[in-house]
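A favour, since you know our structure tokens better than I do. Just paste the record in under my message, thanks.
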Amino acid sequence: MIWLIFALLTGAAVMAVLAPLAMRNGAQDESAADVAFFEEQIAEIERERSEGRLDAADAGAAKTEAARRLLRAEAAPKARVVSSRKLALGAALAAIVVIPAVALTLYARLGHSDMPDMPLTARLDSAPDRNDLSGAVARIEQHLREHPEDGRGFEVIAPYLLRTGRGEDAVHAYSEALRLLGATAARHAALGEARVVVAQGVVTPQARKDFEAALALDAAAPEAQYYLGVAAAQAGEK
């Protein structure tokens, strides 16, 4: 398993080098490209959750991490385009050969396949650079204003908005994702949870409807079951 993971990471490193070399000259909507990339990550997280490989808490955390990576990608300096085809080809070949070789050498010297991973919560708690993110958030929101049909974009950014205290904006983003992408138990539950956060822990009637809609689509939806239990307790129901 460790070698499969190593191969995937090595391939990702190679592609990270090759991708800028493959870019054409000319202006591109880089925000749209970044959003499209992270759409795939969100879809993969949903697949793993539906297959039982991720629980609800880890799936939510993974979505937040995907949103954070999107913001970091938006904040990063724009890469320069390499105009020479010969230079691009040479660099590509070097990347294919050198990156795996260096990675293998370093792993052989320093790697330990039995070392535990850093906990997901610890990775998520590492604070991003707020100055960089403020501009990135503005650019992504501008992208969504210009492309209001991009449901995946709303779904990608919604967890980040909720985590950073922008509850009302998160509710709007989750609502748009639900409207544009269609009803699923996960989307209804995420919207309901955002409403609960905005209401400071109170399961409002609208949030309750969201959780009931989630259960109608998936009777085993854990978030919906939990919050409906909280709602019953808050209402004094038995």
Remarks:
- The first helix runs from residue 2 to 22.
- The radius of gyration is 21 Å.
- Confidence is low (pLDDT under 50) at residues 1-7, 24-28, 77-84, 120-125.
- DSSP finds eleven helices and no strands in the chain.
